[in-house]
Every structure is written in C-alpha cells, then in structure tokens.
Amino acid sequence: MSYYALLYETVDDYVARRAEFREMHLLLARAVRERGELLLAGAFDDPVDRALLVFRVDDKSKVEEFVRKDPYVVNGLVKKWEVRPWKVVVGNEQRSPSLMTPGAILRRWSARTAEAHLPKYLEHFSERVLPELRRVAGFLGATVSTCQTGDQVEIFVETTWRSLDAIRAFAGPDLEAAVVAPEAAALLTRYDRRVQHSLITLSEHI
Fold first, then answer.
1. DSSP 159-183
2. Are 197 and 176 in contact (CB under 8 A)?
3. pLDDT greater than 90 at residue 103
4. Where are the transmembrane segments (predicted)?
5. Distances in whole angstroms, Cα of residue 5 to Cα of each of 86, 112, 155
C-alpha cells in the first residue's frame, strides 16, 4: 500500500457553487473512507482556493477513479487536479523492540490541528524535529499517530529515551515542559504544555 496526495485547485466562485454538489461529494468521500482508502480530506482556508485529499491505496488508478466520479470535478468546480505519491516517513512505522526495551522511558505529548495543516506538521516533524532528536545521546526513537476528531486531527507523539538524563539534554531542567517550536505551534489549534513520562516495564513484539 502506498500514500498519495490528491491536490485540487478550485475555481474562483467555488464557495458559492459548492453547496449544490457538496452532499454528493461527501457521500462519495465517505464511501471511499469506509473502504479504508481515503485517510484525510478537506479544503484549505483563507483563501479557499485548493483542497487536499490523502489516500492510502495499492495503485494510483484508484485515486484517479475517485477524481473521475467526484461531483466537484464533474461539474467544473475544480479547474486543475494532480495526484502525487507521498512518501510518509513519520506516522506509519511499526514500533521496533529496541524502542520499547523495558527500563526505557516513554515521553508522551498530544496536540490538535486542522486536517489541512496535518501534512505540514508531519513535514515539520520529519525535517526539523527528528534530526534534532537524533543528535541527542540516549534518544531511542519516535512514533507519531493520528486520530480523526470531527474536523480536527488529534496528534500523538511518543518518544523513547534511555534515561531521564537523556531527556534533560533535550528538554532542559524542567523535564515535563513540552518542546514546541513556534513554527509548529502556528500549525496547531491546541497542544499540551506539559508532557507525561512513564517507565516501560513490559514489552512484547511479534
């Protein structure tokens, strides 16, 4: 299975015209989501001139099939569209036993963002946060998972560390203070100011 980003460029009067076709569009999108193929979908805001839909399918043709059936495309609300393979490097990996070794420390943090901002946040985490974490001695790994909550996406970040001293080298003297860069905070609608730590006491992997 591979990830694909479907990008729509909408017409200038898209907002005024979409009401007539919105329910049919959502009906199609929900059907594809129920099959597990569509992960996220939504229009960008201010201005509403583009939309992003994220698919996880075995072939690009399934995304193109969706486009051909989409009432927004059929009725001319989308003036240009593009399907691009999306290489996801954070959020789809499985935990490795080395990350969950008993005695290691799990650091948990959560936040919420708009659907349209999720790809940008994941890009920030991949390109900015992970390289910084890898430079810290005692960092063992990270997992990012997401959960749809209405029109928002909840983000869960778990990092694993060899010791509290390793965490202190990253977070500073206040171990429970969340480390959130301003550019990341700008993409979020809510985020934890404090994190939780727990000791991994038992772990099993298949």
1. EEES-HHHHHHHH-S-TTB----HH
2. yes
3. no
4. none
5. 6, 21, 19
Q: Examine the domain organization and report whether 129 and 178 are in the same domain.
A: yes
Position 205 in a domain: no
Note the pLDDT of residue 120.
Answer: 94
Task: Enter the tokens of residue 99.
Answer: 């990350």
Helices (H), the chain: 14-17, 19-34, 60-69, 71-74, 118-124, 130-134, 164-171, 182-185
Q: Is the dihedral of CA 139, 144, 145, 149 positive or negative?
A: positive
Number of folded domains that form the chain: 2
Residue 96: predicted pLDDT: 45
Are residue 81 and residue 119 in the same domain, yes or no? Answer: no
pLDDT value of residue 91:
67
Q: In this structure, what CATH number is given to the domain that contains residue 119?
A: 3.30.70.100
Q: Which of 86, 120, 150 is the last residue of a domain?
A: 86
Both 105 and 179 in a single domain? yes
CATH of the domain at 12: 3.30.70.1060
CA distances from 201 to 55, 83, 97, 100, 106 (A): 36, 44, 13, 9, 10
